[in-house]
Amino acid sequence: MNRTTISLVGLAAAASLAFTACGRSDDTGAEGEEQSTAISDGKAEGTIEVWAMGTEGEKLGDFVEDFEDANPDATVKVTAVPWESAHDKISTAIAAGEGPDVSLIGTTWMGEFAEAGGLMPTPEGLVEETDYFPGAWQSTEVGGTSYGVPWYVETRVLFYRTDLATKAGWDEAPTNWDDLKQFAKDLESKGGAKYGLNLQPGQTGSWQSYLPFAWTDGATLTNEEGTEYTIDSPEMAEALDYYTSYFDDGLSLTRTLDPGELESGFAEGTFGSFISGPWHTGLVEDAGLDESEYAVAPLPGKDEGMGTSFVGGGDLAVFQDSDNPDGAWKLVQWLSEPEVQQDFYDEVGDLPAVQAAWETGELSTDPQLKVFGEQLSDAQSPPAVPTWEQVAASIDGLVEQAARGDLSGEDAVKQMQSDAQSIGTGL
Question: Where is the signal peptide (predicted)?
Answer without folding.
Answer: 1-20
